[in-house]
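cron nightly-structures :: item 1 of 1
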Amino acid sequence: QDKTIVTDETLRRLAAKDSIEAIEAIRLIGSRKTDHLREAVEGRLNAVQPAIRAAAYGTLTRLNGARMPDVREALENMLHSPKAEERVAALDETSRIEGILTTAMLGDALGDPSRVVRIKALQTATAHPCEQHAPLIAAALGDSTLFAAARDALAALPPVTALSALVDQLEKSTPVSTRKAVLRAMKICPLP
């Protein structure tokens, strides 16, 4: 990215806002590895908005690498927060940083009681497909709110894995609405 378009002073000013602009500015500081703007990022660690706080933790992780495990731990703790908004923000940020989001973390998010968290987890599973998540993804098809995101996540998996997970959902013990959704997904998903 051309540093002449967004100056350091602009980044510092935007990072102090309480809006989506702050999140993007904080992330840009991290992607540019602009260490001299660290104070602007550290000032956001106590932000009220979870997305800004998560972006700050993520950027400090990018700037420090593995040298500050407490920053990574704080981001991971947000994934276990009682507040769904915090879990979504942490999931979004951890999915953007290589090596932080584990298979287990994404699996937990796919089974989260909050629909908002599960939608974000399904979107993340689409970008980071893992065959062991196929049963959790297929199970989400029964919820009409999650159907499109679950279908997309299944389509990102190898076709044999997706088909196996879908077939498992057709058992008689599965609710009829889920079985109908599975059949709809079979029509749409690319299968062998």
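cron nightly-structures :: done
The longest helix spans residues 50-64.
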